[in-house]
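Consider the following input, taken from an annotated entry for Cytochrome b (Eubleekeria splendens).
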Amino acid sequence: WLIRNMHANGASMFFVCIYLHIGRGLYYGSYLYKATWNIGVVLLLLVMMTAFVGYVLPWGQMSFWGATVITNLLSAVPYIGNTLVQWIWGGFSVDNATLTRFFTFHFLLPFIIAAVTMIHLLFLHETGSNNPLGLSSNTDKIPFHPYFSYKDLLGFYILLLALTSLALFLPNVLGDPDNFTPANPMV
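Applying the prediction step yields:
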């Protein structure tokens, strides 16, 4: 239960970090590096897709109806929409086949995200990152290790402490109470 709660609440924390990263990018004008920015947008969409299919996995009322409503949005795609929805569902409605497919997507998408993240970092390495001072000279830069690696390690420990505390003391604070009711398409 500890790992499951840390995983579920960690997804929310992950999105907080992503939105802070996007806000920083907007503030410093990182969108001017179009290739790096566009790969970041693709990453955001992949992470959102992974979070959505992960949200369906507990198979509660909110999960069931979230899957039903969001997947039905794909039926608006011209020509292939209804076929696409039935393929995702694995039948004519959200059912056990849908749950199996979503579990598979939730397992496989992080590998795709890792690959796209490497591409994002490759483009970032080519263009260089933005900073508050706007410095681009190599003489003004400091090495990643030990300065930033220790700083990142401290941030990781603080995040781990926050997730563990949340999982131990307030495990369901970020969850919807309706999702504790088992999925029932008749309700």
